[in-house]
Design brief:
Blueprint (H helix, E strand, L loop, with lengths): L4 E2 L1 H15 L10 E7 L13 H4 L5 E5 L11 H14 L7 H12 L3 H12 L9 H10 L2 H8 L22 H6 L11 H13 L5 H11 E2 L3 H5 L19 E9 L2 E9 L6 E8 L1 H4 L4 H11 L10 H5 L13
Parallel strand pairs: 1-3
Antiparallel strand pairs: 2-3, 2-7, 4-5, 5-6, 6-7
Helix pairs in contact: 1-13, 3-5, 4-5, 9-10
Length: about 325
């Protein structure tokens, strides 16, 4: 069962927005992306503070998805999960609090540093990169590198079942034992779905992941400035070309983007005056989509319209459709 409550009207709107974007010179778009969209009546920030964790998960938000369970290479979005694991390890005293750990976590999220990510994953798993290993040593090393996967599996989130969180992120690619670990056809690459990513971001924004203080630290690193001058001064701003670019100045944004030659992704929670808060995770894959800097901003802007507090500004289909009615057209996956 999904952690959110599927809303038929939102599903219709999402399908229509994707149809519009596909018709703007993006043939085959529906097969190249996955989307999970959640909408809230009030701010999600700190909503779980003071609640029993089990009670929080009995309050599902309204949402919709397109291929939300499809596993895709997550690029740097996986760093959000390594941040979450680090907070969990600290809570269990499996990691020692230190300025160097905090510096690496900040660089991993704010600047999307691959070097910092490698250091964090080494700390989480007790492994290091290096030359090829013989079979027995490699098997032990590989088992150790599965610690993050095993921990997320114990959470019991069904969205995590097809995910894989065990690889570092690279500029040029893996070498030595890291390349061995990928397998001959890179079959062991990281994999994530937009549903799994949305669940983690939903929990962190609400204060329901690990603890309210841990969630607050995660939120602090995910906060993105929308001021044009600050964005222009930061080559790794993770706003331009991503979901945040579709928001007006004055909005509030928390996000983690991922971008490489075959993928452009973003996971974001957004608050805009006069609109309901919403959370949006979009993964798009293929060389064309990776180079498409307008897709994510346009989708965010289109779904923002559907979050307007003034019902008169909402599309007619949203005001008329019920959760039990799902018009024809592209079926939700």
């Amino acid at each position: 069962m999904a952690f959110y409550r599927p809303d038929g009207a939102m599903g219709t709107i999402l399908q229509e927005r994707l149809r519009e974007l596909e018709g703007q010179g993006r043939p085959g778009l529906a097969d190249q992306l996955a989307v999970t969209w959640l909408r809230y009546d009030t701010s999600l920030i700190g909503r779980a503070d003071g609640l029993d964790p089990a009670a929080f998960w009995t309050l599902p938000p309204a949402g919709a998805s397109w291929a939300g369970g499809r596993s895709m290479y997550p690029a740097s979005v996986v760093k959000l999960f390594y941040l979450a694991a680090a907070e969990a390890w600290l809570q269990r005293q499996l990691l020692e609090e230190s300025p160097e750990l905090r510096r690496s976590l900040a660089d991993m999220i704010r600047a999307s540093s691959n070097d910092a990510t490698g250091y964090v994953l080494d700390l989480l798993t007790g492994t290091t990169s290096g030359p090829d290993l013989p079979p027995a040593a490699l098997a032990a090393w590989m088992a150790q590198r599965q610690l993050v996967n095993r921990w997320f599996a114990r959470l019991g989130w069904p969205e995590m079942e097809a995910c894989n969180l065990c690889q570092k992120t690279w500029g040029d690619g893996p070498y030595g034992r890291e390349r061995q670990f990928y397998g001959p056809d890179h079959a062991n690459r990281n994999r994530l779905s937009t549903d799994a990513t949305a669940r983690l971001l939903h929990a962190a924004m609400a204060g329901a992941f690990v603890s309210p203080p841990a969630s607050a630290r995660m939120r602090d690193l995910l906060r993105r400035p929308l001021d044009p001058a600050l964005r222009a001064a930061d080559p790794e701003n993770q706003v331009d070309g991503f979901l945040g670019e579709g928001l007006p100045v004055g909005a509030r944004l928390w996000s983690k983007a991922g971008w490489m030659s075959q993928a452009r992704h973003d996971a974001a929670y957004m608050e805009v005056k006069g609109h309901r808060p919403f959370l949006l995770v979009v993964f798009s894959e293929g060389r064309e989509r990776a180079q498409d800097a307008r897709l994510l901003p346009q989708l965010a802007a289109g779904l923002l319209q559907a979050c307007a507090l003034d019902s008169a500004a909402l599309p007619v289909d949203e005001r008329a459709a019920s959760e039990q009615q799902r018009p024809g057209g592209l079926p939700l996956q």
